[in-house]
Amino acid sequence: MNPWQERGLLINRRHFFSRASAGLGVAALGSLLNPSLLRGAEAGAKSTHGFAGAARGGGKAKRVIYLFMAGGPSQMDLLDYKPALENYHEKELPDSVRMGQRITTMTSGQKQFPVVRSMFKFKQHGQAGTWMSELLPHTAGVADDLCVVRSLNTEAINHDPAITNIQTGFQQPGRPCVGAWLSYGLGSANENLPAFVVMLSSGRESDQPLYTRLWGSGFLPSEYQGVQFRAGGDPVLYLSNPPGVSRESRRRALDGLAALNRRQFDRYTDPEINTRIAQYEMAFRMQTSVPELTDLSQEPQSVLDLYGPDVKTPGTFAYHCLLARRMAERGVRFVQLYHRGWDQHGSLPRRIREQCQDTDQPSAALVKDLKQRGLLEDTLVVWGGEFGRTVYSQGKIEKDNYGRDHHGRCFSIWMAGGGIRGGMVYGQTDDYCYNVVENPVHVHDQNATLLHCLGIDHEKLTYRFQGRDYRLTDIHGEVVKGILA
Amino acid sequence: MQHLAWVRFVRLLDHARSLLLSLVLACAMPSSQAAGVDFVRDIRPILSDHCFACHGPDDKARKGGLRLDLKEDAFKAGKSGQTAIVPGKPAESELIRRVSTADEDDLMPPAKFKKPLSRAQVETLSRWVAEGANYQVHWAFERPLRPAVPEFPGNPFVKNPIDAFVLSTLKAAGLAPSPEADRPTLLRRVALDLTGLPPSPREVQAFVQDKDPDAYGRAVEKLLKSERYGENMVRGWLDAARYADSHGFHIDSQRDIWAYRDWVIRAFNENKPFDQFTIEQLAGDLLPGATREQKIATGYVRCSMSTGEGGAIEAEYQAKYAFDRLETTGAIWLGLTLTCARCHSHKYDPISHQEYYGLLSFFNQMDEPVMDGNQPRPEPILKLPSPTQSRRQQELKARLEALEKSARAPSPRLDDAQQSWSEKWHQKLSPEWSLLTPLTATSRPKATNQSPSHLEIRPDGAVLASGPNPEQDLHELRLRYPGGTLSALRLEAMPHASLPHSGPGRSAEGEFKMSEIELEWSSKDEKSGEAKPKSLKLGRAFSISDKEGADIAKAVDGKSETGWSVPSSTNSTALFVLGEPWEIPSGSELIARLRFEASTNRLALGHYRISASTSKEMARRLIPRFYDPWQQIGPFPLSDLSEAFARVYPPEEQIDLKAAYRGTRGEIKWGKRDYGDGAYHELVHEIHGVHGVYYLHRVLEQERDMDARLVFKAHEAYKVWLNGELVAWSTNRSAQAAKRVEVKLRRGENRLLCKVVSEATSSGFAFKLEAEDENVLPPDVAGALALSAEAPKAQRAAVRDHFRRQESLSMRRRFREIEVRKEEQQALEKSIPTTLIAKELAKPRETFLLVRGEYDKKGDKIEPHVPALLHAFPSHSPSNRLGLARWLVDPANPLTPRVTVNRLWQQLLGVGLVKTSEDFGVQSERPSHPELLDWLAVEYVSSGWDTKHLLRLILNSSTYRQTSQASAKLRARDPENRLLARGPRFRVDAEVLRDVVLAVSGLLVEKVGGPPARPFEPGGLWEAVSFNNVQRYVVDVDQNQYRRGIYTNWKRQSPPPAMLAFDAPTREYCVMRRPRTNTPLQALAMLNDPQYVEASNAFAERILEQGGANWDSRIRYAFQWATGRRPEREEIMPLREVFEGQLEEYRRNPAAVEALLSVRSFRPGKSWNRAELAAWSSVSSVLLNLDETLTKN
Fold first, then answer.
1. pTM (2 decimals)?
2. Contact B1088 A213 (CB under 8 A)
């Protein structure tokens, strides 16, 4: 068994409790490790909401890797095969389909809404015969591990509110994101790494911004916010010792610091002091554990080949996918990758080809790699964006060119592992790929299901703020039972 | 004991904390209150949490018509005939039956609600009904009355009423207060609390030695008078007001509103009464005769986030802004969570859906563009010139007026001379027009169902229209071109007797409006024989006459809705000069399209003729000094501005137009650009652009040697070479004015190369050459005089100015000065700071209830009003923000004073008397000291909302002055110090932490106010999240990097990382209470952030310089700076060990010493022993990382 897994198993809740009851040194684990739990145990005063009641246990997933495709990938060019569009190509979208739904001001001024078919070919893949576009040859190779959800929907129609909605359950800033909820609810399984890691890959295009709030903790304490792993400089901010400071020298300084802080504790008996001593020690350990994590030198060539040629270039999506696997092995609860460039209002065919070149192989590799290590069973992988795109063209339809505006009424994502049934398609859209006609899945349902896979009841993972018990799914959300393994 | 066991059992639940507290408090209360069930303490929390969602104030959600928050409703028989509560008779009360029944269908709350009652809760409810079901109004909604102060005659602890209330609670709990903290600790505590900065060792020394019994009181007064006080108090206020230096949504670009931050600092320092402080921020613009300061204060209203996202629907964001402004105000002043009532009536607090929109209407009247355009200064704004700037504005205005008067005054002598000069030029420019006779002329009406007009080609080459007159017409003429250099086109609009009113146009009045004229040259491809159309750009246009608002430029502006007209029945000629001359072989065809599509009023031209200038000579005169177009390449990658400015990129070595290089984003090559002279051309767009180094190259071909002036302007840094010689450069990022350089152009080729370095902002350049050459006319003047000796009206001034410039040296000087002064004027206007302010719509906007809070689901129209639960709206107040502000600070308001004093208490003591300082509603936590809270609230209002008075009371109390040292037993009993048996102790806020480090190290630069500062942060953070990765954080290189944290530039989507790590909010929304976490990321930041390493180096030098001559005195000095107190012997030992160890290591490794001492820009003096300095730096870092240093003890 992988030593990291072994370690993860050792540090379970019971273990925390037994260490907690042992008294001092409890605080040693501090914030990155489900501090709420520890603190509750520590004095009976610093307790928390939610956790105890929320974890109903029995979740198949222990962690999540979320491949966020920011900008809104075009579902009818990737995952939602619509042969009927051949008949409607260049014809006006009927009012009976649009039903007066609001659209963004980028196309609301258009006088016509001509339907544009996908110019990409679809084929069935795997034993389940899942339809996939030629743009995703590698993903097609793992089709039987994936559950394609074609009926996701959201009310938001512009990037900022839509991405905030899907990540925090609310269109307006202020709520914790899904990763923060998880690290609040479950804590970390590795005392030397954060519970919630975020990585932003620099694609060829990065034409929509991201927001710190997407990995923020909202009203939850800030220790639950995502820790950004960066491509340039220190992978974690301020990780390296300053120039001219050796590890020995740092150790010496920390020993002196701890000695003085212990005296301070004797004087004040404030447990925060012991927590601080412990946090400095954990910081010291992170200085080894993080470089070990990002060191790919021991990865066999076969694994590197799986992820494709970009895997060794820090900052690429492929590199981040491999890091995500390494984090999963080490018990990081929630790894959130962002890849931008899917906002294809114009030149969609060219741009989507490029995007797929950068993301298809690494995404599929991650699924394969997790599977070959036996990690896919308890790792939930999600691939998807904040909304989809319109069936009608934004701008003129040309022979090899078209564009699509934002569309929230239906879009496609895929999920794999961690309690999700592979080799299936869930939900149906109409022939125009405009409305959901069967098994709608709202973004709240997606989040409820994600928590469910981790053994958390989304209605019970709550936090009281401003007199109200808040949760990720607000007052909504149904677990999508039909996709569970 | 049983209780304690239970507490331990549920310790993971949220209730544990409040329950423990209420138990502790219950024990602490006088026994009369502890007996029996207390509605407020015991019952309402149960009802509110478990019942009100369906049986509370929200009438839409109410089930079974039962309302439990009102006594009258709960006591009367319901629809079912049952009565929920029969006072004194639990057995007859349906409520008790339903919460205790074994029947799962009947059980309340329903299982699916997932909020079951515990057995203890059911018992409590039952006892309450048995005792008579006594209801009470929620305490926070009742106006506070000044409670009697408990008396403790002669008790030395009681210095003021605060202590009396606290002591009373302590005694009831069987606890005693702690002794006063020692003097160094006390001074450091109060200094951090009031100024956010630690006292110097000298100040501590003086305080320790001050034997005056009022030494402490005087120290408090001194700190209250310091300007640092406002800089410290502003922090919490800005968290609540969600102040930031960026817009927040989507692109999240910079906004200029820092003048509001400075206003808040001033307001605290002036101790502006809180009611006035409130009124000015919410409605300063509506005060009669509003001053500049009062308008700046309304920045509060504009602090909400805004968007410029393409595709966003304005109405949606207009509603969002109003929601945010209302809800923020509700939290800050009322401590109410109004957000719930946005979609439905509040579930817990008696605020209805209607009342929410009644309040919203006050904020629904903002006169502002919803989309901020990603601009830093979206209207409405206020310009804030400094006195110096105002003076300069006046001076420039006067000087320009004088100059223009003397340069442009009528002068018969000059004007006569100009006339003959003009005629001479007209002669030179007017011949050589070749008439272009159309081969065909076709009408193509825009509406395909309308008949085309009949276009006849007349023997004189003119076109005459007749027959049908479509609403919008297009005349397409194929013209035979005689061959030669095409430089201009001439269009004669000629009146004709057959046209209405004998005009040139076809409208009923004989008018026309030409929306656009386009010219195309069709050359036959030699190989394929296919005609390839090439559109020719018409750069400038002139006409002899035009109609007001329909000048000739409108015919070449690319917009179909504008066009050129002349007064009816006027003969007019227009001239269109090409952007560049074209060699066109004879026998070629030109296609001219005259569009009449500006309106549907049938405004086609009826009779006209087209000619062209075809000679080289004319081309030379009309498009004078035409050079090769610019070639551009870029962006080359850069690391920072100064590095890129100095670095020699390939184009500086050799210009090879065929070469390709590695650029910032992939391969880059040279490409031709059409950049007109004199205009400003953007190279890097603020949002879409790619930063880096751009090169512009151009060959200037001269017929002879000549003197000229090169005028160049660019952002952010640039270099200009002429024939290999560097002639102009700038690294001044904010430079607005153009550079003028006298240059010599030689006969033949002159090579011009420009390098523009763009690091962070939008960048661009402008170029022109000025030569005083009487044989050459500027393009505008040439075009105008080609048309007529008198020059068209629009160009008359330009022609006159040009003539006068030529005429005399003194005139030339005047004109040059006008140009320079005008540029200065523009630069000055740009440099004047501005700030966002609030402005009311002239015509009020109607407010509607929004169903489920959705902007496009309007319900009933709602008039402005306030919730019935609270005090009445003052009848004499206007129904606008001003009225609302006055209502908020009305002495009858039960909430504002409580919420405000509670926030101040929280700031000093760490936890508010009401812990949920953002929520005073029914679900809030019960105050730990209700009487004290009310006493303080009443005292605050009756003192005239005097904030310093309130602080003084708290700071001078024994309660505040207690030591924070405590026994483990006391900590276990009251971990959060809610009973106040000891002094406050907590880690200081993110900004204070940084300020302390800077102050201790001696790096801190104290300067109050001004634009945001940009201290060090690691590179790449802004790029990683921004649109197209273009936003870039540029670290200040001057003293600004060492200013207090409150001035640090705050970008909401990428706030300073070290601040975020220490719990600073993102400022996206109102935060009334920061969490206080303790994480390893904080340790990494404190140990390794280069700012702090630099500070350790600086502190080390300060220790050596000022800490005396020996190690012992130095360590005492250093320790005292960091902690305020002298170290004990046992504390010196570990530091000595660190020092000795590091010294030994650094002596062995001089390279490490130099590496450490060169972090960032601070450089210690050369005279110190370097290894020793490095060892001290390490000790400094330990001292700056001490828990005691990071903490207010």
1. 0.86
2. no
